[in-house]
């Protein structure tokens, strides 16, 4: 998994560069980063809210 | 006369033969009937057929146009694929109920008037409930009952809305409705309850995961999408729906990310994806209605495929919680199921060359035209969450995960699912890829055919960067997303736990009052509800008790009406 992380990071950076060059536009950075920021956001939401919503038992309503 | 043959009624009549057929003939029959209905659909001429006079009105059982046809085709394809997938399921009752459920859904889709719509709407709720119960799991009975109560309340809203609309001179024809009366709002509330718009969504992730592996395929395909159809028919362009849909898309995906149960995770994704469709209906116009139809069609294909993929894991291992599956190296045991599942996952995320990319592009184009940047952003974030939870989290923890020797040994003997299950999945996978590679195929089902120029360099690159960025985040944060073997509470807590002390306190008080005032119907109904709650805590309760609750709701409504009229 550790190796895969760096490969993915490399692919992503190349993709961002390609998007910038091929579309001949200034990279819309916030949008380009949305995948990464969004993932952090979902994990943060889980840490902040999801864990508080965990029921005490595995099958709470049973 | 072929034009007078109702595809839904044909399915319902065909269902009656299922118990009579011997086992060896039944399998062929189950798959061939949807193919025959598909052929019938493709030859149905546009127009209004099967018009039945009733008092001063004429009911239209079969209104055929491009909007109804697009949805109907998706329903029948899902039924056919689901039948192939569900063949190893030997219980003929489930197949019978699936036919009746599909038939009533087609009845809703082709209803030309509000009364016909209501009749098929209620039948749809009933057969869906019976389908949930047919799984005969310990949790399916209670979840099915909650499903039924929710939908009967929705049905009451629909009935009041229709009667009020009719009494106000609005007629019985089912066409575009203006949100200018309380009756139109009642109809809208009924539709959004069935669509699973929060806070009326809890019945969906509650009940669907308790169905059988094939039952959930039909449930995932029919009810919510029939609701999208009626919303597109009745309320296209209602701005409130655009915002409700965007919230729905985000709400569903956030909850999906938290889930441990595979099929509950995918059920929350139904909420999220239907959010895209509701949003498109709110956009309205040609782009909005096209977007809702395209996404509903695409969704029925890939969601059925995803539910089949998760069902294949459940069928092969008997487990559906990610915390029970992770590290079992199921990619070695169920490789074909994984591949087919991944096609569905890439489709739902909206990866280029898959159908979800095309249908989402139609919706976002509509939003760009309206200049709705905030809604556009909300849907894009929902896409990130979809890719994260369906393509990465579920696939990783179900089929891969950090291998542990005990877990690997536990699944050592697991074998791939029967070929017919893969065949059902493969049909849907071909549709998902085919419509993604050739977007013009969408014109086959769009209400307003258009030139679909959805592939451009910047769109494809932007989308790919979005998903590779999500994968980077997942690879770094995977430990944080480790599934926990606990239930996540949702808004249903308010009535499943929060209301319990109130009702437990109020019912004895009402009973005391009822002793004083005599045997009033209302008091008796309330007293019955205490028995219902007691029975619930003891582990059993009956449909008649649910009916008491519905009757109570009806009485309150009539009382309120008499007071304010």
Written account of the structure:
The complex is a heterodimer of chains A (62) and B (565). Chain A has helices at residues 2-22, 29-32, 34-50. Chain A is mainly alpha-helical and 62 residues long. Chain A has one domain (2-50). The model of chain A has no long low-confidence stretch (mean pLDDT 82). Chain B has 565 residues and is mainly α. Among the domains of chain B are: 238-487, no CATH class; 493-564, no CATH class. In chain B, 73% of the residues lie in helices and 3% in strands. Chain B has helices at 7-17, 23-42, 66-85, 92-110, 114-133, 140-170, 182-195, 203-207, 215-221, 223-234, 239-258, 262-283, 285-317, 322-325, 330-333, 335-349, 355-370, 373-399, 405-410, 419-437, 457-477, 493-517, 521-538, 543-564, and strands at residues 47-54, 57-64. A two-stranded antiparallel sheet of chain B has the order 1-2. In chain B, a hairpin with a 2-residue loop joins β1 (47-54) and β2 (57-64). At the A-B interface, α1 and α3 of A face α11, α18 and α21 of B.
* Helix-and-strand structural type of chain A: mainly alpha
How much of the sequence lies in strands of chain A comes to under 5%
Q: Helix fraction of chain B?
A: over 70%
Chain-averaged pLDDT of chain B: 91
Give me the number of helical elements of chain A.
3
Key traits:
heterodimer, A: 62 residues, mainly alpha, B: 565 residues, two-stranded antiparallel ribbon, 73% helix, globular
Topology:
The complex is a heterodimer of chains A (62) and B (565).
Chain A: H1 2-22, H2 29-32, H3 34-50
Chain B: H1 7-17, H2 23-42, E1 47-54, E2 57-64, H3 66-85, H4 92-110, H5 114-133, H6 140-170, H7 182-195, H8 203-207, H9 215-221, H10 223-234, H11 239-258, H12 262-283, H13 285-317, H14 322-325, H15 330-333, H16 335-349, H17 355-370, H18 373-399, H19 405-410, H20 419-437, H21 457-477, H22 493-517, H23 521-538, H24 543-564
Antiparallel strand pairs in B: 1-2
């Amino acid at each position: 998994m550790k190796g895969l992380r760096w490969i993915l990071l490399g692919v992503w950076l190349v993709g961002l560069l390609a998007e910038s060059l091929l579309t001949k536009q200034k990279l819309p950075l916030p949008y380009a980063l949305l995948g990464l920021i969004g993932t952090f956001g979902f994990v943060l939401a889980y840490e902040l809210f999801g864990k508080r919503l965990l029921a005490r038992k595995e099958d709470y309503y049973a | 006369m072929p034009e007078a043959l109702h595809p839904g009624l044909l399915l319902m009549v065909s269902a009656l033969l299922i118990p009579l057929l011997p086992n060896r003939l039944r399998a062929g029959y189950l798959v061939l009937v949807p193919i025959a209905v598909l052929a019938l659909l493709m030859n149905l001429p546009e127009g209004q057929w099967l018009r039945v006079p009733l008092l001063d009105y004429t009911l239209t059982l079969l209104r055929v146009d491009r909007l109804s046809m697009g949805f109907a085709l998706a329903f029948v394809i899902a039924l056919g694929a689901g039948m192939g997938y569900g063949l190893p399921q030997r219980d003929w009752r489930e197949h019978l109920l699936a036919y009746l459920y599909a038939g009533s859904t087609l009845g809703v889709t082709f209803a030309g008037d509000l009364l016909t719509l209501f009749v098929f709407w209620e039948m749809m709720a009933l057969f869906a409930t019976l389908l949930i119960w047919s799984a005969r799991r310990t949790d399916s009975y209670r979840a099915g009952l909650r499903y039924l109560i929710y939908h009967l309340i929705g049905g009451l809203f629909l009935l009041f809305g229709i009667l009020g609309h009719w009494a106000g001179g609005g007629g019985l024809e089912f066409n575009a409705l203006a949100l200018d009366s309380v009756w139109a709002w009642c109809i809208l509330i009924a539709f959004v309850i069935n669509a699973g718009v929060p806070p009326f969504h809890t019945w969906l992730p509650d009940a669907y995961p308790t169905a059988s592996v094939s039952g959930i395929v039909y449930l995932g395909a029919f009810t919510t999408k029939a609701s999208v159809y009626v919303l597109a028919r009745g309320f296209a362009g209602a701005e409130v729906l655009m915002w409700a849909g965007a919230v729905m898309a985000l709400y569903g995906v956030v909850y999906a990310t938290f889930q441990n149960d595979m099929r509950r995770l995918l059920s929350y994704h139904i909420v999220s994806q239907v959010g895209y469709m509701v949003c498109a209906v709110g956009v309205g116009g040609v782009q909005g209605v096209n977007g809702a139809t395209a996404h509903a069609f695409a969704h029925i294909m890939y969601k059925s495929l995803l539910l089949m993929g998760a069902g294949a894991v459940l069928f092969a291992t008997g487990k559906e919680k990610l915390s029970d599956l992770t590290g079992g190296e199921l990619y070695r045991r169920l490789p074909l199921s994984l591949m087919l599942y991944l096609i569905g996952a890439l489709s739902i995320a909206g990866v280029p060359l898959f159908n979800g990319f095309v249908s989402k592009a139609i919706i976002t184009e509509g939003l760009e035209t309206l200049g709705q940047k905030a809604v556009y952003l909300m849907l894009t974030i929902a896409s990130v969450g979809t890719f994260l939870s369906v393509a990465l989290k579920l696939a990783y923890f179900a089929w891969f995960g950090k291998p542990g020797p005990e877990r690997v040994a536990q699944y050592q003997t697991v074998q791939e699912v029967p070929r017919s299950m893969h065949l059902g999945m493969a049909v849907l996978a071909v549709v998902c890829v085919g419509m993604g590679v050739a977007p013009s195929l969408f014109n086959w089902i769009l209400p307003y055919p258009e030139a679909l120029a959805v592939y451009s360099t910047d769109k494809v690159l932007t989308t790919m960067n979005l998903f590779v960025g999500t994968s980077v985040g997942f690879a770094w944060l995977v430990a944080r997303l480790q599934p926990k073997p606990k239930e996540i509470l949702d808004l249903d807590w308010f009535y499943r736990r929060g209301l319990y002390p109130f009702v437990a306190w109020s019912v004895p008080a009402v009973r005391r009052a009822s002793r004083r005032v005599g045997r009033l119907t209302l008091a008796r109904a309330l007293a019955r509800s205490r028995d219902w709650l007691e029975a619930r805590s003891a582990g059993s309760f009956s449909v008649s008790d649910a009916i008491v609750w519905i009757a109570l709701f009806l009485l309150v409504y009539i009382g309120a009406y008499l007071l304010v009229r």
